[in-house]
Amino acid sequence: MSTQTFTLPDVGEGLTEAEIVTWRVAPGDAVAVNDVICEIETAKSLVELPSPHAGTVGELLVPEGKTVDVGTPIITFLSGAPEAAAPAPAAPAAEGSGSVLVGYGSGTEATSRRRRPAERPVRSTVGVIAKPPIRKLARDLDVDLTQVTPTGADGEVTRDDVMKHAEQASVFRNIQTPEWGAVREETVPAPQPAPVGLARGIAPSRASIGADESRTESIPVKGVRKATSSAMVQSAYSAPHVTVWKEVDATRTMELVKRLKASPDFADIKVSPLLIVARAVIWAVRRTPMVNAAWIDTADGAEIAVRHYVNLGIAAATPRGLLVPNIKDAQDLGMKDLARALNRLTTTAREGKSTPADQQGGTITITNIGVFGMDAGTPIINPGEAGIVAMGTISQKPWVVDGEVRPRWVTTVAGSFDHRVVDGDGMSRFIADVAAVLEEPALLVD
């Protein structure tokens, strides 16, 4: 029996490292070519890594949770395995197989006899009808499928069922008041004067943060969080941010959303106010192109690249962290196609299947902080862009209409801009245009 070593490949993203998130196989497992052997997380995406060999798994060389460089040996295979060890045919993946590597063929669900480690609680879902991608989504969102009410055909749990259950759970997660500890009072050492190094802005060592490990938890910064933090620091300290905002009567937007939901043309499409916001941003970009531009440093100084297209980024909070995939050439999409694109983008992001290509080339971004109940914010611009729009929550408030106070659906539209690219009049005009569309969506009809 010969041994073959498989090294971490370059997944075609221009990245140099990745984390081994989950091994799908164990030593002694029989695998076929293209069986998924593990999931790796790069700075931008979660990728299923297919096996390049057929045979028996020899040794897992890298533990789960460890980040290694491209080219590092991660697993060995034993070729010439006995006939009895041949794997059963892999079942085809339902609803897409996720990311696969160029040159390895299409991804499939791996045939594996590996048991989960004892420290990972596994809920029994026997009797629950759900496709593999839905089960993975439930695991990522920590949703117990046995507690989800199915709405699909023949009692099947759908993606919307899982998302609805997760959203409801997040609302009530902290409803129980924590119990007080058994110790009513304790004495802790008084803080000592900061060392000279700290006064100069030098970070303390890990040992000086706190000796009582039970009171402090350390979370490694890696993957998406590492990439996001680096990008945000770069943006915040390189582009001079200016934020403007405007309160808006969005009653007619809410009426339009209600009509679209009831329309047979949108029967299979999820419609939300974000759709109208997206159309408003695209419309406003056409009137103020500089918000869709980018500052570019060159050898001779700098230049501003004005894009005459819109790759519309949508900031998405996912179990892996903040992702900003974008809809390519959104300016060419009608209302229905844009709604479908938004649905695909948000669903793919939440399932952790956004590819690096999905997140590259954005020109302007929308962040919907209203889903968290926030009225407004001062978002940080995505690197390579000059503007980002924050959409606040839409709630009923008293509003003066024709001299009378009436209940109206009100929201706040905010925008942060790179002041090197966009002047005050431009950013104000842009936000005013977005607000105008939300007040009167009929402006979208050319």
TrEMBL record:
Residues 129-166 form the Peripheral subunit-binding (PSBD) domain. It comes from the Bacteria. The keyword Transcription regulation does not apply. It is an enzyme of class 2 (transferase). Belongs to the 2-oxoacid dehydrogenase family. It comes from Microbacterium azadirachtae. CDD domains: lipoyl_domain. GO terms for molecular function: acetyltransferase activity; lipoic acid binding. Keywords: Acyltransferase, Lipoyl, Pyruvate, Transferase. GO terms for cellular component: cytoplasm. This is Dihydrolipoamide acetyltransferase component of pyruvate dehydrogenase complex.
